[in-house]
Amino acid sequence: MNWTALSALVVALFLARFATGVIEGILFPAGSLGQLMGLSLLFVLCLAVFAIFAFQQQRRPLLNAAVALGVSIAMGLALAVMYGSRIQSFPWSVVAVQWTVMAISMVVGVSVGSVVRRMSRSSANA
Q1: 12 SS3 class
Q2: Whether the Cβ atoms of residue 49 and residue 13 lie closer than 8 Å to each other
Q3: 73 three-class SS
């Protein structure tokens, strides 16, 4: 495992989640529509992060991405426990949906990044 790339991916995922929360809180309307827009933004940002990572990672990109996603989720849980009393309560069902969206974006993003890497490599050889 490339721990430097893995660490960079964890930081990028954390920043994507943080940016999504800030944008969702400031720009999107309250309620279901705002949550749907926030989940869509989270999906797009995480997909882009995972695709860029998979494009650069040649060995086992899905495994590395899954480890980074797990570390990112663990960091989020640790921060929620540490600062839980200072922030408003958040339903765990919404958190579970966000994790599912991130997992789906991981699979799609790694697939897209790997395919683009293979296509660019084959066109360079042609």
Answers
A1: helix
A2: yes
A3: helix
Q: Which residues of 87-104 are buried (b: 16+ CB within 10 A; e: fewer)?
A: eeeeeeeeeeebeebbee
Give the N- to C-terminal CA distance of the chain in Å, as an integer: 30
* Token reading at 93: 């069902």
Number of H helices, E strands in the chain: 4, 0
Rounded-to-integer distance, Cα 110 and Cα 54, Å: 5
Q: What is the pLDDT of residues 71-109, one digit of tens each?
A: 999 988 888 788 776 666 667 788 889 999 999 999 999
For residue 88 the two structure tokens come to 């408003």
H helices present in the chain, as ranges: 3-26, 32-56, 61-83, 92-125
User: What 3-state DSSP class applies to 60?
Assistant: coil
- Tokens 């086992």 belong to 60
The model's pTM is 0.87
For every residue of 97-125, DSSP letters joined together read HHHHHHHHHHHHHHHHHHHHHHHHHHHHH
**The amino acid at 117:** R
